[in-house]
Specification:
The structure holds two protein chains of two kinds. Helices cover 61% and strands 3% of the residues of chain A. Chain A has 17 helices and two strands. The longest helix of chain A is centred in the N-terminal third of the chain and has 34 residues. Chain A is globular, with a radius of gyration of 23 Å. By secondary structure, chain B is of the alpha/beta class. Chain B has a seven-stranded mixed beta sheet with strand order 1-14-13-12-15-10-11. In chain B, helix 9 packs across helix 12. The longest helix of chain B is centred in the C-terminal third of the chain and has 16 residues. The chains are: A mainly alpha, B alpha/beta. Chains A and B meet through helix 2, helix 3 and helix 17 of A and helix 10, helix 11 and helix 12 of B.
């Protein structure tokens, strides 16, 4: 501790006013406060302040995401070795998975941080810890084996266009991680649209083909022949409900396990970090729309309409999106009660896009981005209602 | 007695509450008035350094309303006129003659029965000349009430929710008749007088049920007259109600009964930095160090008037005209190593992000901001605690965008400046100070 303190005390003058690296002060501050709680005396009104700061707020979201990362590493390694016909003992799975996933995470952080520092220096704002979360979320939404240049491009788009051009954290109206993800989705649809997923073949360095693709549960669902139910078709290709819930199937790195999403949601709600209104609203939106489609489905309708609504929650990234993406407080609604509406609409649109849009098998990301656009309007409506209820004081 | 429930707000889990002991410390060497902390006045001095004054002599008046005069709480010599940055008059210090303090007779004593026979103008004139009018203040800006106007209501707060104040049960002990007299005077000024107390203190509410009109249930700042008004008002006319604190009302009554300027005050001395947290009977405007007694920390911050809404007193400074609370808070010294990764069993927080949330208990607090300044992340914590249902983050943003009309429509003037929004903000944004500054700017524009 003493050593660290001395190190920082030695470095600090270089970053402070007049030092050679003064422009990088925001970067220095963000690193120092990871190790040492900051000291700043309050100016009064009030003289004391809560112990919670944004750093801890965001660090706890990362804590909630770490199981997803670990599971993602395991799952990527497992699927890869399984498809390559290699042994599936635990250590080699972790080794393979680590090599698949961790470079993506590292690239995301390096590139994301570079942009944030650049903007922090030029625009003179502080480095917000929201970046740590965005950079963790982004790779988790990607399939393993995404080329690293695509990862770098995606996070660049997410951070710059999704956030920084609007003034940085707090002023963005889109979820940066999802913006980057959507960019890859549209720019490189062959590899990112969600109907097929890459599984990286291990130990195939000499061959031309190093990945092979297979249908995701969502595309299986969408293309179920009329005579069968979706659940049967899914089961026939190995996607049982139990498996989908657990998440040990090919898909995006962090988004496959609904089980972990449920645990993460409980953790974040218990700590008061994620809004339970949004999450419950989202779950209700998915279930209600699924149920509504069940009701509407005639005998000739596509079997996807008759799918058990709960399957929409355990397939694809809907659970991950609802728990971690909708609840980004900045791009979510800021007022309290419209959070229900926002969550519900996210869930509803997710199911509608999945079922009715043949081009996009997965809909959760687009649904959330679409609803992000409506949030200022929703906030405005609630604010108007609140203001009308007040006895005016002017 | 009408009961009022206030659902929002928050009681700080702060260590250092005063013990039940009551101490007499009524011979401070110096006393002072603090023009800087009397809201919105522009002082015109009536004395120079070295002048001899008696208790009740005029020290200064208000330039914008010369009828407002501020009387000396001590008899002796004007020891110092302390100026701050930009020649702001901070303190007028009186060195008292301890053995025989001169006292000025301001008016003939008034019997309680005679109050009702006084005309309204006569009563206002008596209070102004007696130097106790400034204790009457008006919402929403909390400046001194305008003697020329008639309020829609006068609110008397007997609660003590902000850490740490003297509970009414203490300062009213044996002074029931003074309270009755005070209320009689207020009724003379305005027929609608609301007296509210903390419903949590049932014994007190029972004891004073003849005078208490409203029992208010809720966390801090449920003791604030602005919060009270927000929850009981029926129309916009009531927004300009006046208010006075319980202890100040006793001074008003005492002044009328004796015809002299009353100077006795009961203070709460508290905080983790105070070695001997207790209640103290002393003089109005007594020196902070004298009141605080022995202290633990090397250089604590004396918050005068409460840890949320009070001001930071100078180490050699005095209490003001209104303040009856001195809290010694330790200033932060050393940065915690790896705070970010600690479970935080002893970190006070309203959120549930530290282990201390499992067992809420009073914890030591310092004046540390506990974090770096960040952009608003719209967590909504400020709106969760705002006692008057403002959405502080939204109002804050409209103030920054200079949308004054919008901020007003949000309820800016309902803001009671309790400081809770700033307390809970994880981005460490000075919400309350911004809202307060916007209120003051709007007041200036109106005048």
């Amino acid at each position: 501790m003493k050593v660290m303190r001395n190190l920082f005390d030695g470095l600090r003058p270089k970053f402070e006013e007049g030092g050679p690296y003064h422009k990088l002060y925001a970067f220095y501050e963000s690193i120092e406060t990871i190790f040492f709680g900051p000291i700043e005396r309050s100016q009064g009104l009030p003289h004391v302040r809560d112990s919670l700061d944004v750093k801890r707020f965001m660090a706890l979201v990362i804590v909630a995401l770490i199981p997803h990362l670990c599971f993602g590493i395991y799952n990527a390694g497992f699927q890869s070795r399984l498809a390559s016909g290699l042994s599936t003992d635990f250590l080699s799975i972790i080794w393979t998975g680590g090599w698949l996933v961790l470079p993506m995470v590292v690239v995301t952080y390096v590139v994301g941080f570079a942009w944030e520092i650049l903007f922090a220096v030029v625009r003179k704002h502080e480095i917000s810890e929201g970046l740590f979360v965005s950079c963790m979320l982004f790779p988790l939404t990607l399939p393993p084996g995404t080329p690293l240049w695509q990862v770098a491009l995606g996070i660049s788009f997410g951070i710059v266009i999704g956030k920084e051009v609007f003034g940085g954290t707090g002023r963005n109206f889109l979820n940066p991680a999802l913006t980057g993800r959507a960019f890859l989705y549209f720019a490189y649809p062959v590899s990112h649209s969600g109907d097929q997923v890459w599984t990286v073949l291990s130990g195939a360095r000499d061959t031309v083909v190093d990945t092979f693709t297979m249908a995701t549960p969502l595309s299986v669902s969408a293309s179920t022949p009329a005579a069968q139910t979706v659940e049967e078709t899914l089961a026939s290709v190995g996607y049982s409900g139990f498996k989908l819930f657990g998440g040990l199937y090919p898909g995006s790195i962090g988004g496959t396990s609904t089980l972990l999403c449920v645990l993460g949601a409980l953790f974040l709600i218990l700590l008061g970090i994620a809004s339970y209104r949004i999450i419950l609203g989202g779950v209700l939106g998915v279930l209600f729309t699924g149920w509504l489609l069940n009701m509407l489905a005639g005998p000739d309708a596509a079997p996807f309409l008759s799918l058990n609504p709960f399957y929409h929650l355990i397939m694809g990234g809907s659970a991950f999106g609802i728990v971690y993406m909708t609840t980004d407080p900045v791009s979510a609604t800021h007022m309290k009660h419209v959070k229900w509406v926002y969550g519900f609409m996210c869930g509803m649109l997710t199911v509608l896009i999945r079922v009715f849009n043949p081009a996009f098998p997965e809909g959760v990301g687009l649904a959330i981005l679409f609803m992000n656009l409506f949030n200022p309007l929703l906030d405005h409506i609630e604010m108007q209602i609140r203001m009308r209820r007040r006895i005016s004081n002017v | 007695m009408i009961s009022v429930r206030i659902s929002k707000g928050y009681d700080l889990p702060i260590q250092g509450a005063p013990l039940e002991t009551l101490e007499k410390a009524d011979q401070p060497l110096t006393v002072a008035l603090l023009p800087e902390h009397i809201p919105f006045i522009r002082p015109r001095l009536a004395v120079k350094e070295g002048d001899r004054v008696a208790v009740g002599d005029v020290l200064f008046t208000d330039k914008s309303n010369p009828r407002l005069q501020f009387l000396s709480p001590g008899g002796g010599v004007v020891d110092a006129l302390r100026y701050g940055p930009r020649r702001v008059l901070q303190e007028v210090v009186i060195r008292r003659d301890l053995d025989d303090e001169a006292e000025k007779s301001l008016a003939s004593p008034l019997k309680p029965e005679a109050v009702d026979r006084c005309s309204h103008e006569d009563m206002v004139a008596r209070l102004l000349e007696g130097g106790v009018w400034p204790f009457l203040r008006s919402l929403p800006y909390r400046g001194i009430a305008d003697p020329e106007s008639r309020p829609p209501a006068i609110i008397v707060g007997l609660g003590a929710r902000e850490p740490f104040q003297v509970p009414a049960s203490r300062y009213l002990e044996g002074r029931r008749d003074l309270l009755a007299m005070g209320l009689r005077v207020l009724k003379r000024l305005c027929p609608a007088v609301h007296v509210f107390a903390d419903a949590g203190d049932q014994a007190f509410c029972q004891d004073y049920q003849d005078v208490i009109t409203h029992a208010v249930q809720g966390s801090y700042p449920a003791d604030d007259p602005g919060v009270f008004l927000f929850h009981v008002r029926r129309s916009a006319e009531e927004n300009r109600a006046w208010f006075i604190s319980g202890q100040d009302l006793l001074l008003v009554a005492q002044m009328l009964l004796t015809g002299r300027f009353p100077t006795e005050r009961m203070f709460a001395v508290a905080g983790a930095g105070a070695a001997n947290p207790r209640y103290v009977v002393s003089k109005l405007g007594a020196p902070l160090k004298y009141l605080a007694g022995k202290i633990h920390s090397a250089r604590p911050r004396y918050t005068v008037g409460g840890v949320l809404t009070g001001f930071a007193g100078m180490p050699e400074g005095h209490a003001g005209l209104y303040e009856t609370s001195i809290v010694a808070l330790p200033e932060p010294v050393e940065a915690d190593f790896l705070t970010l990764f600690r479970p935080g069993i002893d970190k006070p927080t309203r959120s549930r992000t530290f282990l201390s949330a499992l067992r809420r208990r009073p914890l030591p607090m310092t004046t540390n901001v506990n974090g770096g300044r960040r952009a608003c992340i719209a967590c909504g914590y400020c709106a969760d605690v705002c006692p008057v249902n403002i959405w502080p983050q939204m109002t804050y943003k409209s103030i920054l965008a200079e949308e004054v009309e919008e901020a007003l429509a949000h309820g800016l003037l309902d803001c009671v400046e309790c400081g809770l929004c700033t307390y809970v903000c994880p981005s460490k944004i000075e919400l309350a100070a911004t809202l307060q500054a916007a209120k003051h700017a709007y007041r200036k524009e109106q005048a």
